[in-house]
Design goal:
Elements (H helix, E strand, L loop, with lengths): L7 H17 L15 E7 L1 H4 L7 H11 L4 E3 L3 E2 L9 E4 L5 H15 L3 E5 L2 H4 L7 H15 L4 E5 L8 H20 L4 E4 L18 H16 L14 H11 L8
Parallel strand pairs: 1-2, 1-4, 1-5, 5-6, 6-7
Antiparallel strand pairs: 3-4
Helix pairs in contact: 3-8, 4-6, 6-7
Length: about 260
């Protein structure tokens, strides 16, 4: 039996649908597309707060704007890729729903693949309402050991986690252990730096009691930015002196402004 050939006209609706679908699909989490610009490799590492739940790109958007305004050439790296089109580099390692242990189970492979110079670690939120929140500090310490063993020359910035709209005493207990953990690594000669993210945000900066809203992510970007500037070479050097307007914007963020850049 000879198969019936479908006329081209019959295929046009399908082709139109596929074309529209391709345009409408946003940049979701997926395999990194390696938007390398030859800059200093920075790996955003963590859970959905690094991914940018509720606000696509999360703090990575504001931080990227600061890199650009400050004329730093930075290459964000990771196995995931998402965020708005305005985010100049979409690569990251923000794994939604993941715990410290899940990150630890995979981090060595990511570090081998990406070889970052700087790592921004914000992890532990999912451990807080897990089965063993009391063990989270020990798991974090082990994770840091694995990161510094695989990437001994990398600058590792370890943040206290942002507030939650519940279980605040558990969050505080976890965060209270982090400075001692970081100091023990520093005493051992590791390139580890403490970042106090918890105090930068309040419950009013949360969209759903867990994830920051747009203003909260902007505050996170500012905290990361100031931490990076405090460690010479962590993001390289600017190509030239930033404009005066950049300095003014930085001051506003330092004063707690949650305004987003235009």
């Amino acid at each position: 039996m000879t198969p019936t050939r479908r006329p081209l006209a019959a295929l046009i609706p399908l082709l139109v649908f596929l074309a529209v679908f391709a345009v409408l699909v946003p940049l979701g989490a997926g395999t990194a597309r390696a938007e390398s610009n030859g800059g200093v490799k920075v790996m955003p590492l963590g859970d959905s707060i690094t991914d940018g739940f509720n606000v696509p790109g999360g703090y990575r958007v504001g931080l990227w704007q600061k890199f650009t305004a400050g004329r730093y050439t930075v290459d964000l790296v990771g196995s995931l890729f998402n965020g708005p089109a305005g985010l100049g580099d979409h690569d990251h390692e923000g794994h939604s729903g993941w715990t410290i242990q899940q990150i630890d189970d995979n981090v060595v492979n990511w570090l081998r693949a990406q070889n970052p110079h700087t790592i921004l670690l914000h992890i532990g939120t999912n451990d807080i309402y897990g089965s063993d929140p009391a063990g989270a500090p020990a798991r974090l310490s082990t994770l840091i050991d694995h990161i510094t063993a695989q990437a001994p020359n990398a600058e590792l910035f370890v943040a206290t986690i942002t507030p939650l709209g519940f279980l605040d005493s558990t969050v505080r207990a976890y965060n209270a252990a982090i400075p001692g953990i970081v100091q023990s690594k520093v005493n051992a000669g590791k390139r580890v730096h403490l970042v106090d993210m918890y105090r930068a945000l309040t419950p009013a900066d949360l969209a759903d009691g867990v994830h920051p809203n747009a203003g909260g992510y902007d505050k996170m970007a500012d905290v990361w930015w100031r931490a990076l500037l405090s460690v010479p070479g962590s993001i390289g050097t600017p190509s030239s002196t930033p404009a005066e307007s950049t300095a003014t914007g930085s001051t506003a963020y330092g004063n707690g402004s949650a305004a987003r850049a235009a």
